[in-house]
Amino acid sequence: MNNFKKEKYLQILFILSILILLAAYVIQYILGYQPCNLCLIERVPYALAIIVLILNYKFKKDQIFFSVLLLMIFFFSFIISVYHLSIEQGFISESVLCSTNNTDLITKEDILKSLQNFNISCKDVAFKIFGLSLTTYNIFISILMFLISAKIYYINYDIKK
């Protein structure tokens, strides 16, 4: 019975990760909202989770290892999202990741090239749903996915006993 539940939890993580990445790409490429560098970094845990979940199906004997990886991935996702929200709310100043590197522009070609590679500020929220930034939603989703990963870990741990 536990195996059935674990499989459902794994499927939920897999489907949510795909849907979140798809939503991010739709917002960027179809709706035309440019993400900041931290927004791009916030996508990485979901891509990693997809890879880990695929490997989890392939290598059945390393279930605890993969569940620990999932816990670490979604904990990182939570931390980076809280950091990003702190920048959005003005609690901390923007990091080097968010700033543009237009300080050493000497020639006209350098200026034109830098305009093509313009970085969006991490403190500017371009897209909101019901008044909340996507970073805020990412915090809640990261917590949910961390809790699901914890449940998977405990199921795997109980099976090993």
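Second entry:
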Amino acid sequence: MAAAQEHLADSADETPIPFRQAVEALRAARLRPEIEIDPTPAPKRLAPFAYALEAAVVEHASGPGDEDRDLADGRLVLLHQPAGHEAWQGTFRVVTLARAELEPEMGADPLLPEVSWSWLTGALEARGVRYGEASGTVTRAGSYYFGGLSAREPATQIEIRASWTPAEGPGGVPDMAAHLSAWCDLLCQVAGLPPAAPDPSPRGGVVPLPQRRGPHPR
């Protein structure tokens, strides 16, 4: 069963077809070039079948002496319980994490938690995906430096943890390419990237969201 949780099983007899199709949609999704994404081991106790991805929003080096910088990163896990799950109100569940450092003025905004949650719901709505039973937390943490690190400016980090039940389409398969694209929109938003030009395809590009802040230095 562990093989089915961490990766697609080799045999269709071991892995439900809807789950296999949902994972294939994740693998086929087209994302904006700043997103780097890779499979990662999935949790083994949350559902009989799970598939996980980790992603980062990367600012690529502009010169020979520069280095790439991660502006935001996160994790997306797709869970599947073929028999259905009462708390999910469905057979699939998406569990996500997105985090980034913020500019000082943004980190001090008292409305930051509400605004950050609206970035997630706005991204899902902008993609036109159907979902339910959404829940999550927004955590803001400050870092202050002392001693040998006292020259560094204070930093604020934000972490958005969320989960929702994707609506199932034909054959009981949710449109996971659209859900992944919406989550990547959120990552780009917390990273401070300017909106990208919209792609007419619901499976590619990034739908512009209201820009809340600019890129932050790292």
